[in-house]
Amino acid sequence: MAHLLLIEDDQIFAHLLAERLGREGHRVATAPSAEAALEVMANARPPFEMLLVDNRLGPGMSGIELLRQVKQEHPDLDAILFTGLDEPEVGLEAYRAGAYRYLTKPFQPQELLLIIQSLLDWRTARRERDWLYILNEIVARLQGVETVAEVGRVLVEGGLRLGFDRARFYTTQERDGQLFLQGVCQDGAAQVLGFEQILIPLAETTYSARAVERREPTFFTDYEHGPGFLVNYPTTEGDPPQVYGDWVSVPLFSGERCIGVLNLDNCRRPRPVPEEQRKLVRLFAGQACPRPGAGPQAGGRAPRPSAGRDGPEHLE
User: Fold this and answer.
1) Tens digit of each residue's pLDDT (9 = 90 or more) over 257-272
2) CA triple 153-155-160, angle to 5 deg
3) Which end of the chain, N or C, is less packed with Cβ atoms under 10 Å?
4) Distances in Å between the alpha carbon of 154 and those of 33, 160, 232?
5) Which residues sit opposite 52 in a β-bridge?
6) pTM of the full predicted structure?
7) Is the separation of the CB atoms in 182 and 261 below 8 Å?
8) Which residues pair with 311 in a beta bridge?
9) In what side-by-side order are the strands of the sheet with 246-254?
10) pLDDT tens for residues 176-222?
11) Averaged confidence pLDDT in the chain
């Protein structure tokens, strides 16, 4: 279900609607004005996935004005706008401001619930189509890489295009029979300071270690096995990295050797990863893994990602 912010100055209506949405499994917070909503959003942990906004909010910004401002900072944040019967022009303005749909008051809660579910279904279908295209493109780009570091950069860029807030790639080193992770490259929000200097035993990583042991992309929800080792490192945003919702650790193998790990997660708002998208990631990981013979060093030359004899296989 979704994490929602309801912005409504009619407190009785807001309470009743939030209560009904909560019974359907949604997490709902409320704000009585646009200004209050901005403050709630700034402090929300985890961030909101969707806004439900009444256009008439009393003194201050209107719902549409709020939506325009929010969309500038959070273009992927979806919204549903409530309008009055005497506001026939607001519907068009709502779409121009970036709303997914608008509802005319009064409305039945069930009507809103259906629109919310429709939005969630549409978002999932859109992401699945986007993921298939992006993953195929990543596999094609990997055919031209020369080093393990280049593999990391292609994967990190691709991870952000898939919609994750943050992507980090580690290569592996073996010392005295023990496997270590070495930070190579990262991108996205809340980047870890000194990431390239990180060198940590794989056994101390909690999440990457589980993925390497399973030899396949492994999905987690939040810090379900306890905080990861990166909580000891500051980020470009000051605080240690936080993880919300579903995320994945993808080990890359060359034959029997793990040569790297790609971690993709979210620190802005939770994004569920449905099973169909998880299947695509598993299929992608198999095609992205280099053939035996790759050196583990970040600057070492990397063999071409595995593919069929006639070129890269497309994900289907």
Assistant:
1) 898 999 999 987 778 8
2) 100
3) C
4) 43, 10, 27
5) 6, 80
6) 0.63
7) no
8) 308
9) 199-201, 178-188, 166-175, 257-265, 246-254, 218-221
10) 989 999 999 999 988 999 999 999 999 999 999 999 999 999 999 99
11) 85
